[in-house]
Design goal:
Layout lengths: L21 E7 L4 E7 L7 E8 L3 E10 L7 E5 L7 E7 L7 E3 L7
Antiparallel strand pairs: 1-2, 2-5, 3-4, 3-6, 6-7
Keywords: Signal
GO molecular function: interleukin-17 receptor activity
Protein name: Interleukin-17 receptor C/E N-terminal domain-containing protein
Amino acid sequence: MKTFPDFCGIQLTETYYVEAGKLDYMVNKENKIITVNVSNILQDYDYNVRLCKKHFVCHDIGAHAVIRKENATKSVTLPYSEILPCLCIEGWSAIPDARRTRLCPFKNGK
């Protein structure tokens, strides 16, 4: 962060690193589920994972799970009804104004 404009010749600078999480997934088309593995998350907080449909923003479609901070396994299984190009996986730490990580793996018809 940096002050702008520069008031009275005083400039404050601070670096702030945010861990947003890394999402990896596996699709089971037979059972219509997506297993999401999460890494690089803040250790002292729960982590939310959901499926959403992306237009301009990501709209919740009901598939949502919370990975508790106590869980050694950092993965969840989310059901889906249909693979669409706009179907995305979104994850974020359970803290106010957390940065969200979004992965939209089906937009190219895969």
